[in-house]
Amino acid sequence: xxxxxxxxxRSRARQLAGMxxxxxxKFCGEEFDLAGASRGYSLDKVERYIPSDDEVVNWWHKxxxxxxWRNFYGLLACYGLRPHEAFLGQTEWVDLGGDRRVLGFxxxxxxxxxxxxxxxxxxxxxxxxxxxxxxxxPKVSRNFGQVGARQxxxxxxxxxxxSLRHRYSLAGNTSQGLGTSTVAALMGHSPATNQRVYQRxxxxxxxxxxxxxxxxxxxxx
Length: 221
Known about the structure:
The protein is mostly helical. Helix content is 48%, strand content 9%.
């Protein structure tokens, strides 16, 4: 119990600790359930800081240019990927008709929700983050999410890898005007999940950023 109590209440770490300890107890022949003490964690209850676009770009610049983690960060920011998807997929050009094309990211069939083709939001970030040509990724073979989260902390980035996924969702739903169904399909989950888990972070500052972006778009000749 002491190991469980050391984990933050209502956190993912506490939930996982409870599950592991319960299984270990059963392996040892004990019949008590520690999972109950770890309840309270839910994706739609997690408080999360969502960085603005300017913050995302500024933190990318702070990562050393020779570090492959800069490319990992860029993929998560540009395509709203789950950490493991960045390691198990690849970029590819997508023809938009005429002379227009965009650099998409093809998520592997082996990933959580299967294969899908993801669009960059905004599309300019693919170029800004140096993703148009060949680039090196960190050498990671397992525990992609945990390793990525630890690396963010080492680089003193004040938000988690999943915060970049949330920013992608909010930007797609607001300033890009794609709509919930389209954004959900790009992210590999249902519209209901997008509304319940991701759009709950659409607070005042994000709402006003959306208003400003749309106003500027409508004001252009």
